[in-house]
Specification:
Length: 147
């Protein structure tokens, strides 16, 4: 199994963090990073998503941050899910650049996305802009946590 992801630095320069063949860099991943660095995620923007993109987002709810025990969608770590010709690009962040579970979370996200019927390859792009803050947590989960 190939585990791979890309890290988008603040200047949006791709840093290859792939084991195995080089990760693809597409206009969609750059656009997703640009969108993520803008004002709203796809959830907040209310944009219309394909059924596959919606299924992938639901599958990503099975991926939890092992330190917090909360899924990455409700934590607000997933900024965008984009389908391109049967493949999927997930743009996400982590709670901090030093997150010790980052590799595990990203690998689990890739596996969850690729587990959806109709998805060929999933690319997980890690971005640091916008930086994650607790305000990105789903409001219902934030209320349950007492924020």
């Amino acid at each position: 199994m190939r585990v791979g992801w890309k890290i988008m630095e603040r200047d949006r320069t791709d840093v290859d963090a792939t084991e195995g063949p080089e990760a693809r860099t597409t206009d969609a991943s750059r656009e997703a990073a640009t969108n993520a660095s803008g004002a709203a995620s796809d959830r907040e923007a209310g944009s219309e998503k394909s059924p596959v993109e919606q299924q992938v987002r639901e599958a990503l709810k099975s991926v939890t941050d092992p330190e917090l025990g909360i899924n990455i969608v409700d934590l607000g770590l997933v900024y965008d899910v984009h389908e391109i010709e049967g493949d999927v690009e997930v743009t996400m962040t982590l709670t901090s650049p030093g997150c010790p579970a980052g590799g595990q979370i990203m690998g689990d996200a890739k596996n969850a996305a690729e587990g959806i019927d109709g998805v060929g390859e999933a690319t997980v792009t890690l971005v640091w802009k916008p930086f994650w803050t607790p305000e990105k947590i789903d409001p219902k989960v934030r209320a349950a946590l007492g924020f």
